[in-house]
Structure formats: structure tokens, C-alpha cells
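pinned: reference chain
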Amino acid sequence: MADWLDSVLPKDCPRNSGLAIARLTEENRIGRGGLTLTSPAFAPGGELDPCFTADEEDAVAPPMEWTAPPPGTQEMVLIVEDASVSPPTLHWSVWGLAGQRGKLLEGEVPPRVGKNAKQNSEWLLPAQSEEDGTHHFVFQLFALELPLTLMPGASAKDVFAAIEGQVSAAAVLTATYRSAGDDADDWEDEDDFD
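pinned: its C-alpha cells
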């Protein structure tokens, strides 16, 4: 496991050696050139709103914003994984993002999206049961020295292979999620009007 993950991830987030940042980059690339990743929808380490999870019917991917990467960056790649399981569950892989300061709006369809853990090319909605407890999602942004030539729908294996050795800088943002459960049980059936 990369020991430096302690300096990147919150204390309560599992140190999962399968995470993309542990596999594809080094500590000295994290935040290089002042690169940061944030979201207007949650604070670093904060909880994902139900509108980004399977708890809501019309859920979408959360908005993301990043600062300018180091000069010479050709492309940005965003990978989101659940660090609370091993190997990490891939929820989103996005590329084709310009090598500059940028953002993805809430629910925006990115330029290119790869297959997630369910083999769909979309944001995989967090959907843990109450018994699973809190899960930690790691949003990982990579600045690449060369553009990717992958077609939309590429496998995680192909995306990771294309990124390897091309990362000039990276940024990390974490969020938590715990299922709200089924609130329907809290309501009593009041059909009897006697």
C-alpha cells in the first residue's frame, strides 16, 4: 500500500491500495501546480446528498470544479471509486476534459465516459444498504501529459492502462454516503376512517 495515502485521505477513509491514485501516481504529483478538486455540492469529506445516490429516483452525478493544471497538460481525467470495498468499486471514469481550469455541472453528460463496475457508461449511483454502514467515495482528478485516444465506453482496464505513466498532477476529493433506508415504513396506513 502507498504509505503516502495517509497525507491525502481523511483519517476515517479506508487506505485502499486498489484506488487509482495509489496505482497511477505518486505523492509528489498530488496538488502539483496548485491543482485542486472541489464540489459546490459537498465539503471535502462531507456527505453526498441523496440526489446523487440511489436514494432518489432522478439522481444524477454531482458537480465538480477544478483549478488550472500544470502548463502542458493535454487532458483531464476524473475517476470516482468507493474505497470502502476491496477492490474499490468504480463509479465513474470520465475523460476528454480540456487540460485547463474547468467544471462539470450537476448531471452534465461528460465528453467521454467509460464503463463503471456495472458495465454501464454512466454515473453509478451509490446504493448501499443500511447494514453496510458509511462508505467513502474518492473523486480523483488526473492531469495528463498526452491526450487519451480511447473511445467512449472503454473498460476500466483500458482507461487505467492509458493513464499510466502520463500523470503530471492529481487532486483528490472525498465524500461519504450512508443509505437513508426506506422511510416508507415510518408512515402508518390510515385507511380506516371510522
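why pinned: The first helix runs from residue 20 to 24. The first strand starts at residue 37 and ends at 38.
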